[in-house]
Known about the structure:
By secondary structure, this protein is mainly α. It has helices spanning 3-12, 17-24, 29-51, 57-65, 68-101, 107-113, 122-132, 138-150, 152-164, 167-175, 180-209, 212-216, 222-233, 237-261, 286-317, 323-357, 361-372, 378-392, 400-425, 428-436, 441-470, 473-478, 486-494, 499-526. Helix 5 (68-101) packs parallel to helix 8 (138-150). The radius of gyration is 24 Å and the shape is globular. The two termini are 28 Å apart.
Amino acid sequence: MTLVADRASARAGPVGPTTRAARATRAPLPLVLLAAAVALVAVAPLVLVVGRVLPLGWSGVAAYLLRPRMAELIANTTALVLITVPLTIVIGVGTAWLVERCALPGAAIWRVLLLAPLAVPAFVSSYAWSSLVPSFDGLGGAVLVTTLAYFPFVYLPAAALLRTLDQGDVEAARALGETAAGALRRVVIPQLRPALCGGALLVGLHLLAEFGVMQMMRFPTLTTAIMQQYAVGFSDAAGSLLATVLLGMCLLMLTVEVLARGRSRIARVGRGSSQRPVLVALGRSTTPALVALAALVGLAVAVPVAQVLRWLMGAVAEDAVVVPSVLLTTGTTLLFAGAAGVVALAAALPSAWLLARYRSKASLALERVTFVASAVPGVVIALALVAASVQWARPIYQTMALVVLAYVILFLPRAVVPWRAGLATAAPELSEAARSLGVGPLGAFTRVVMPLVAPSAITGFVLVFLATTTELTATLLLAPTGTQTLATAFWAASDELDYVAAAPYAAVMILLSAPLTLLLRHQILQSR
């Protein structure tokens, strides 16, 4: 047993009959049914996609998969994931450590700047880079843009946990003879594992489903090939087969995340309060650290924002900004994003609660199912929903409800991961104590658990909101006729290389996202 587990057991105290009984209690049936319903809705479009592959037969599937082009697409997608995910982990953890555990000048400012890439949509950034350096494309360009755009998914949970981890664990390890590096390896890293694995999983799933960046960087992956197949054959069996391969890669990624995350407990229960971390003096490393952070923020934020401002100035000079159209598009985007954020939070809670309080193979499977659809390009989910709504639910076809449903299916992991991280720090013993005092299940949740996990819930809402405002392919297919969002309006202009027309929509997307990144920073500060 590791030092972390020993100290966690010591804090929790002796396990009495009440606690044992609570642990043995089965999950409430309504909670299980809710989680199962959400999982069923999330996986239903994928069942339709896989069903379209059946007419090919085994021989047709084998013939298609063994083509050299298929090997190239799989190799490109795999290389992108294997390079980008480790880079985002290194950058995310390194920056979180600098701003939260080191005596870094201007740490409060860096906390904001390191979240700023979330305010710049990845496909806007790729458009800016490709316009600035037209020859910049391929794997190198795709890795650069996605790493700069997605490292905050790792930085955000890592920074939040580094602010809450008890310094007493480190001091206990040092008192037992561990070196500083040993204490970091045996105490801090294991407690960061759930957050790191969750953030890395989000990055990996986004990479599998990313279309805009890959198209702009001219780097063919399974997702770009799927879009080409659907553009030519409109939901033909070949496109569904590619989507099925992508599903297999997603399942592999989910399995690796489960094995890497482990079952470590990080919730603290016991006497006293946790000790705040002692900041590490950087000394001569201060200047290199500041230069590295400035370079990172400059590449991730300054370059694309500068390009957008240059385009916007051109649009203003040419009097090409159609204000009513921009305002209408902005209102539609806010409506879609707000609805998707609320629904996704509600849909993510049952599976996250089951896994946190009644962990079992079944609860783990229900949670994993909600992750699968997010690895599939939005066009795949959209076409499946079109087919299902036309055949079985025609009244919701071409309505806002169908668009929001697609967003929830695609971005549910962004709500699940924060819920899961928040519930991991809300010790079950606190709820059990409230129940022993006569408080009902709902009262225990609202009065005890919710105040502890509220920052995580807000984080999940913001992440879903940000994703919705920049979603492209599903919106193009599902939005009611004549309805545009900021992302689809920007893409329509950028597809024609009309920088001036695209600029206002890109600028508004950034302006909308900026205050939300500040809200994310506030949630990190609240977690202290």
